Amino acid sequence: xxxxxxxxxxxxxELVAGLRAMRRRDxxxxxxxxxxxxxxxxxxxxxxxxxxAARLRHDQLLWTLGLPLALAVxxxxxxxxxxxxxxxxxxxxxxxxxxxAPRRRRRMAGExxxxxxxxxxxxxxxxxxxxxxxxxxPWAPVWxxxxxxxxxxxxxxxxxxxxxxxRLLLEGAGSERAPIGRPWIRRxxxxxxxxxxxxxxxxxxxxxxxxxxxxxxxxxxxxxxILGAWASLAGRTAGPAAMAGLAGGILVFMLSLRCQPLGxxxxxxxxxxxxxxxLRLVRLPLQLSLAFFLLPAGAALAAEPSAWAVPVAGGFWxxxxxxxxxxxGAYFLNAPFVAMLSFAGALAYAGxxxxxxxRTVLIGLAALVFFLWHRTRQRYRNG
Amino acid sequence: MDEVLAVSELSAGYRGRAVVQGxxxxxxxxxxxxxxxxxxxxxxxxxxxxxxxxxxxGGSVAIDGIDxxxxxxxxxxxxxxxxxxxxxxxxxxGRQYIELVASIRGCAPNDLPSGDLLERxxxxxxxxxxxxxxxxxxxxxxxxxxxxxxxxxxLIFDETLNGLxxxxxxxxxxxxxxxxxxxxxxxxxxxHVVEAVPTLCNRAVLMADGSLxxxxxxxxxxxxxxxxxxxxxxxxxxxxxxxxx
Lengths: 383, 245
What we know:
- The complex is a heterodimer of chains A (383) and B (245).
- With 383 residues, chain A is mostly helical.
- Chain A contains 14 helices and no strands.
- Chain B has helices at 43-50, 72-76, 94-105, 117-120, 136-148, 166-181, 197-200, 218-226, 230-244; strands at 3-14, 17-28, 32-37, 56-63, 66-67, 79-82, 154-158, 186-190, 203-208, 211-216.
- Classes of the chains: A mainly alpha (383), B alpha/beta (245).
């Protein structure tokens, strides 16, 4: 095994091992079911593009700002994720004993990141070029190429930033000794089974450490809540604050829900059922989400007292969406980012199809949620 | 009820492929069963099937008279499994882990066979630190203490004793012997330390190719343990015969 391609080889072997670990029935479901669904989605998108071709061709805001911004954001997110993935392999614990300098490891991760960026960029170029050709936009290949360049700029910037800071990987490795003493979270985390949230949130000894990530995660929803409340109070309308409460509430829930203890033999061999553990894991994130919702909901009520139904409906939909995400989070228990993407994708797709076929599509979403919940429960019970 | 574990015609494995098959095993209170076998012989798969971590392809498991498939939560209350050290919740401290298990089992965190167990295992000075900072042996000690919480009738140690220092291993063996001598408990010890089996266990089984290949009762173990190396010799002979077949 040559060192310079070690990261790529590791990623490839993980993929192959993951596929081999799956049952043939599940693989067939993914290949045929997922393939069929993807083909249907592409056909649907082509039809939608055809229908809106004239408007899309001349939408200046879309071509000068919307698309470039979306591609840059997509590239940045992808670059950060791919570089992180490659760095984790280059600095994997089982490679620690090998005589590889940190600079060499960073280079291996960088080469693998670049190798993975090429097909992603090609995919972007083909997708955008194809979409331009469908709506009859002149110079479709040039638009595709430009889109790939913009994506590559975002990807390269984020990947370069991440690759220069491999020490970020060591944050969770317990290199810093945890403080001793009674953590303040004890009071919140005492319900049966106790300490489950501290475990799920990976708080060393139940102690929360201040970090930039935590500050950003608190600051963003707080700013959204304050802006929403201000807009409602200034305009004397409940809408903006209720929306900010709903969006911020679900964001807080998604960021705080972690379900990886569901996969642990500590719980699976203990006399406690899946539903009880799942509800316990959901409990604190739900409390945080509802606590966040109260500020903008209060502002909405103060801005337009006669429209009390708006924040009440917001609270109801927040509970429903939190419940749906809790199922996605439990199903993708080791990959919260994948859970968030799948949840957002399922909601967006259900919403889009609802416009086309009516509310009966929501039955399909409910069936999907029930199926995921059932599979997660089966996995907890039987492995 | 005298029978703590009843395994009948058990087949279990992964992705629908049986790794262990045709297992019949019965454990009564007071039994200390040594589970022996080469790597890949199916010891850990058998323990995973008994503790409900993998689905049964065939057969049944009953713990303290409760069928594992029919009432998994009630059945799981009947055993304490020492979790493999790498599967412990590393962010929690040892004390928090013990409190977590105690809260699930519905007992007090100090409901242990011996009041000074933490000191006997030299775990006291580590108990407030996150498990991530523990060595392999210290993790094994935390797993053993958690398995003993609430004093369940069946205790299962899957190669957990192998990583302990001599003093802790001796203390754990004393605790196991005392629990089983009380006539209320039964223990399964999966181990590669063959020479330890005659002194600790009163029964032993040898697994090979996913099935029970040979078994020793208390009298046979006592006889084999009488001469130094006699039990090891008989295990090696059984393994050689199996390999030649």
